[in-house]
Amino acid sequence: MKLIIKPEKGFGKIKVELDGELVGEIERLSERYGVPAEKIIEMALKGEFRESHGELEELEEKTENLEKRVWKLEREYSPLRFKAYGLSEDNKVLAGELTSLIAENNQLRRFLGLKPEKNLELRRLISYYRK
Amino acid sequence: MIKTKPEVVLSREKFNALKGRDINALLRENLPKVEETLMAEREEFLREKIAKLEEKLHKMEGEIEELREFYEKATKDRKFMMTERERLKQENAELRVEVEKNKVHKS
Question: Closest partner residue to A73 among B2, B19, B64, by Cβ?
């Protein structure tokens, strides 16, 4: 396999035949880290390197665990949200029915000279769900 | 797979420095350092990903807790409102009978 190296500006090129073992190693790195082979060659030729903290395996494991936890929560979240929305809508309808029943109750009581019902807890709930 | 003729473009300075050098030997020498650099880059990427995942997880846990509390409250409220609906229906029916009786009595 022939590698061609060119300058960014100007003319000229270097042509090199890469040996099989080297090509195999470049391919291995390319596949393992998901980086194009040209990028690997470029990095090796530029000679600008960084040091690893040797935590790759630990970080991979931590990421995988977190992803699993997020996935699990997402599976719980969507149906719960759907159920809560349904319940809230049902309560809204119930609050509407109760408003009519309370109005009728007040009218009947007034007609009969009775005191209207206060039922503050119920009124509070009605106003909460009819918002 | 590597292309049959991979091409790499370098700065003029780096390009000039490579002239006359044994490129195969240089690559062989530097590939372990490239691997370490790739590992360092992956580690950095994973650290950022972990931070984002932890933030997302924290937010989701809070939201789920809130949702659970709302669901429990709404279930309790629904039960109470249904009981009240039945009670009011019955009471209104009784009151209507009383009103009718009063109307007849007055006329």
Answer: B64
